[in-house]
Amino acid sequence: MYIGAGFGPGPRDGLMTGIVARTGWQIRYVRTGIELTVLVVGWILGGTVGVGTVVYAFAISPLIQLFLPYFVGQSRERALQP
């Protein structure tokens, strides 16, 4: 909701919206790539990877793709759509 309201995205959300705006790729693919990259880097650095972490990495991107249009105004929606 905060992305659509224009309150400013966090680091991952900003990267996601920037890549989507530049490339026209779908949000779900961009966000999944970001989440999996973060998961792998965290694991390589010695972090633990649990079931919840993996489920989140794969589930957040389709959920954002589904719900973001409901919270984005018309002008911002055009910027996020390919």
Contiguous uncertain segments of 5+ residues: none
Question: Element order, helices and strands?
Answer: HHHHH
Q: How many angstroms does the end-to-end distance come to? A: 20 Å
Structural class: mainly alpha
Total number of domains: 1
Query: Helical region count?
Result: 5
| Coarse morphology | globular
Main beta sheet: none
Radius of gyration: 13 Å
Q: How would you portray this structure in words?
A:
This protein has 82 residues and is mainly α. It has one domain (2-80). The chain contains five helices and no strands. Helix 2 packs across helix 3 (27-44) and helix 3 packs antiparallel against helix 4 (51-71). It is globular, with a radius of gyration of 13 Å. The model has no long low-confidence stretch (mean pLDDT 81).
In a few lines, what is going on in this structure?
The protein has five helices and no strands.
Reconstruct the topology from this structure.
Layout lengths: L1 H4 L5 H13 L3 H18 L6 H21 L2 H7 L2
Observed structural traits:
82 residues; 5 helices
